[in-house]
């Protein structure tokens, strides 16, 4: 229990540090590249849905995989609790076979709010892979971010995220696009993040 509390405290400190406003003048020892933006384009505009189906369709953007009537994950998507990233993970993870003999292996990494830090978010987006984000008891597709990147003299780097770009798959049109803004929104309302990777054989 002591180790768990220590880990949670460290994770919270890391996240708080990453979400704090960057100083106007960076201290000696590193260079800041401010307000960089990364976003995944050409994501499908699926029909709005309050369950996990529309979010997973957008996440995988492959109709054979998810989530139409004849897709591999159709039943799993409908059965998944949209307010539980752990339940969604349990429904989709594993090796799945297509009718043509090919297969896809889905792996996931669930992060509770106090364990999220900027590195896996940016690294996932760089791979052109959306993620699932639960905020204020709603499910969103995380498809982009606005952030600073610090490069240290030692060769290391650090990300400071200002805004997470999200799709609210309950809606269509302009209401579909929203964001988590660190200057206006409270991280206490975030429930977690689910990173999803696929490998096709």
Detail the topology: elements first, then pairings.
Blueprint: H1 2-19, E1 30-39, H2 52-60, H3 74-79, H4 85-92, E2 94-97, E3 103-112, H5 118-126, E4 131-135, E5 138-152, E6 157-167, E7 177-181, E8 190-200
Antiparallel strand pairs: 1-5, 2-3, 3-8, 4-5, 4-8, 5-6, 6-7
Q: Main β-sheet: number of strands, strand sense, barrel status?
A: 8 strands, antiparallel
N- to C-terminal distance:
41 Å
Low-confidence stretches: 1-23
> In the CATH scheme, what's the topology name?
Cathepsin B, Chain A
Q: What's the alpha carbon Rg, rounded to whole Å?
A: 18 Å
In the CATH hierarchy, the architecture is: Alpha-Beta Complex
Q: What does the overall shape look like?
A: globular
Q: What is the CATH first-level class name? A: Alpha Beta
Number of helices: 5
Structural class: alpha+beta
Give the overall average pLDDT.
85
State the helical fraction. Answer: 10-25%
Question: Based on DSSP secondary structure assignment, what is the total number of beta strands?
Answer: 8
Give the strand content: 35-45%
Order of helices and strands: HEHHHEEHEEEEE
Count of structural domains: 1
């Amino acid at each position: 229990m002591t180790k768990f509390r220590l880990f949670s405290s460290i994770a919270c400190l890391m996240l708080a540090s990453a979400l704090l406003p960057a100083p106007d003048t960076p201290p000696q020892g590193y260079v800041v590249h401010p307000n960089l933006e990364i976003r995944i384009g050409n994501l499908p505009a699926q029909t709005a849905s309050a369950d996990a189906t529309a979010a997973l369709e957008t996440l995988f953007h492959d109709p054979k995989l998810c989530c139409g009537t004849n897709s591999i994950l159709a039943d799993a998507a409908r059965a998944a609790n949209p307010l539980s990233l752990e339940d969604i993970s349990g429904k989709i993870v594993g090796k799945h076979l297509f009718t043509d003999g090919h297969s896809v292996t889905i792996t996931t990494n669930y992060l509770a709010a106090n364990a999220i830090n900027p590195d896996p978010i940016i690294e996932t987006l760089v791979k052109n892979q959306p993620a699932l984000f639960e905020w204020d008891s709603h499910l969103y597709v995380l498809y982009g971010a606005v952030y600073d990147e610090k490069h240290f003299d030692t060769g290391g780097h650090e990300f400071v995220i200002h805004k997470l770009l999200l799709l609210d798959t309950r809606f269509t049109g302009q209401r579909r696009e929203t964001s988590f803004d660190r200057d206006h929104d409270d991280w206490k309302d975030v429930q977690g993040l689910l990173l999803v990777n696929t490998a096709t054989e």
